[in-house]
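Blinded run. Sample ID left blank on purpose so nobody reads anything into the name before looking at the predicted structure. Input follows.
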Amino acid sequence: MNALAGFESPDKLSTQVLQVSDLRVELQGQVDVLSGVSFSVQAGEILGLVGESGSGKTTLATALLAHARRGARIVGGRVEVAGQALLTLQGDALRRARGSLIGYVAQDPATALNPALRIGNLLRETLGAHQVQLDRSAQRQRISETLRDVGLPDDPDFLRRFPHQLSGGQQQRVMLALAFVLRPKLIVLDEPTTALDVSTQAHILATLRRLCKSLGVAAVYVSHDLAVIKDLVDRVMVMYAGRIVETASREALFSRPAHPYTRGLLAAIPDVAQRRELAAIAGHAPAPGQRPVGCGFAARCPRRTAACALAEPALHEVAPGQQVACLDPHRQALQLIASQGAQRVGEVVERPALLDIQGLNVAYDRQVLFDVSLRVAPGECLALVGESGSGKTSLARAVAGLGENAQGRMYYAGQELSLAARQREAGSRHQIQYIFQNPYRALNPRQTVLQTLSGPLAHFFGIKGDEARQRVAAVLERVSLPASVGALYPHSLSGGERQRVAIARALICQPRLLICDEITSALDVSVQASILALLRQLQAQGLTLLFVTHDLGVVRAIADRVVVLQHGRVVEQGWVDAVLDQPQAAYTRTLLENSPTLAGVL
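Blinded prediction complete.
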């Protein structure tokens, strides 16, 4: 079910490109973020670097470029790329190495690309800064070859475009072109496909693997989702609390994961191929400076013993090519449990719809939704899926009354609903709530959680003072957060905690319909599993969900029915298992073929 499945890793890779030895990164006060990190990568090899937020993945990725974020320092160890010791370089020598020797692809191309420069100028400036020996003709030839390599046009019209005139997938391909145009020995990629739809993601990953293998470029690919990298990487390195806890070939890690943490990550991944129980890893990773003596994962591990608290386990070999830092590693294959949850299938029960949309059309500078009609029953979870630009978010915003130039009819609880939120009855506005994709931007950084959650109470219900505080504490408990979180600001919370606060802000409004717009796309798989469990619990209590996502694995895990959108039109809809197991539309089949899955390895 993946465009990368046809690639095979080479039996033997001959040239070592990256060698990392005993790398250590500290915060002030000798608080370690990374410690004792050692590994190597060969030419043409792709190493997957996985773990939850806070595990040290990005810190390690940037340390490979001899860079540490503000407040942190690389205090020990060695990083060699093609025999060059990067940590000894400074000034111009280091700047030349970043690009010509080692390339970097950031997570968000929209912020990484200079919006004031055309694509052609971006590529020419990059070549001019690092490879001054190339004349204009050689530059044009290198740019043309690289654009074709990453699947982009090399005609003058494309080179004159600005980044904002490209799709998200095209922007990410430009980022790959900027890295590969210099023909580096090593490329580091930090979650480059997190926000992309499954089709674009599959194309980007296939392009990356083809370029690394054909050009002999070594790569370190940072990800929080093992399913995404299953068909991309040759080896996997799992990190937890700044340490390597397991490293193995792709085949060994997926067939017999040894560390309890690795198995926990795999058990938390929703799979498009099968509806199964998702198990979130209990607890949280220790923050820098709070790592306990002994095994850092012991507090969250179901296999812990008294010995785990005595000394930090060292990496040791449990099978050829597989090392694990655990006193009691698993030796058997991981068995994932298929869900026996009763998804409603068969004949649709005739009952009044909570939401009924008829002939909805939405236009901005062009029309983005065409004659969309759908129904959502009370207590149902309806998923909206499709590639970027399919109209998912436009439809969701129209339901919330946030759309512009919308035409059609919408009925809520049997009553006609205005397509503009400001024209809806004040007494009913709180019943439809919207949870945005990015909790970092959705929460006011200048307000505490208590202030954020108290605002809707005062606005909709006139509730203030002690009663407001009691209701805030109650809704925080409902989303599995302690009441003490109310005193904190958003920057003090993890990504999963911020998303729970965003859900709590919607719930405190006493909604009947909750619109979730890609709310798990940027979350760790374990946090995602806990958020999905929370939403299923809320649904069991009678809440109706409209769930927007590009992840068909999440759809399989949570939704009752699914609507597939392509270019603003509904191309297929039905019960989730029926649509995902026997898709009728060619577009749906394409989405399924490009969706990452663990089927066949677990």
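Unblinding after everyone has recorded impressions. The chain has 20 helices and 22 strands.
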